[in-house]
């Protein structure tokens, strides 16, 4: 017998498993809106920033390579959920803005996601869910 702790006690493993479960549920919840997790994330960020945000900023906030953002933005723009405009501060860059249709769809998608997450996390109770969110926000890189 070795002195190795069981994998079921490993925080990284547990976070990965929980993330996989939540991502699978999110895919199902977003399917009626013809969104995937990444495209939803781009749309949600565009909705959060009333004055738009740059593609590089999108990539940084999502932890993606900027080249991955282009296809996501292209798809959402083709669906008229977001628009691109020249950045007045730097004409070489584009700003991404949510359209009214994008904002409406995002609200509906957020409601579906919230319902799905509530079902998954119901066993924890409201206080534990708040504490979990705060803990994850404390250790997750990026968004403050």
Structural class of the helix and strand makeup? mainly alpha
CATH T-level fold name? Arc Repressor Mutant, subunit A
The tally of helices reads 6
End-to-end separation in angstroms reads: 44 Å
Mean pLDDT: 92
CATH class: Mainly Alpha
**Count of structural domains:** 1
CATH architecture call: Orthogonal Bundle
Neighbour order of strands in the largest sheet: 1-3-2
Q: How does the overall form come out from the CA principal axes?
A: globular
Binned, the helix content reads 55-70%
Low-confidence stretches: none
Q: How many strands in all?
A: 3
- How much of the sequence lies in strands comes to 5-15%
Kindly report the name of the CATH homologous superfamily: Winged helix-like DNA-binding domain superfamily/Winged helix DNA-binding domain
Largest sheet: 3 strands, antiparallel
Radius of gyration, in Å, reads 18 Å
How would you spell out the order of helices and strands?
HHEHHEEHH
């Amino acid at each position: 017998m070795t002195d190795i702790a069981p994998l079921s006690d490993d925080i990284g493993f547990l976070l990965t498993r929980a993330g996989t479960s939540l991502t699978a549920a999110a895919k199902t919840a977003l399917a009626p809106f013809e969104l995937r997790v990444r495209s939803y994330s781009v749309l949600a960020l565009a909705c959060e920033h009333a004055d738009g945000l740059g593609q590089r900023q999108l990539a940084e906030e999502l932890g993606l390579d900027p080249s991955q953002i282009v296809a996501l933005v292209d798809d959402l723009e083709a669906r008229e959920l977001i628009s691109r405009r020249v950045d007045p501060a730097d004409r070489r860059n584009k700003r991404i803005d949510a359209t009214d249709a994008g904002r409406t769809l995002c609200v509906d998608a957020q409601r579906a996601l919230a319902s799905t997450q509530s079902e998954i996390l119901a066993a924890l109770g409201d206080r534990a869910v708040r504490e979990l969110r705060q803990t994850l926000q404390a250790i997750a890189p990026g968004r403050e």
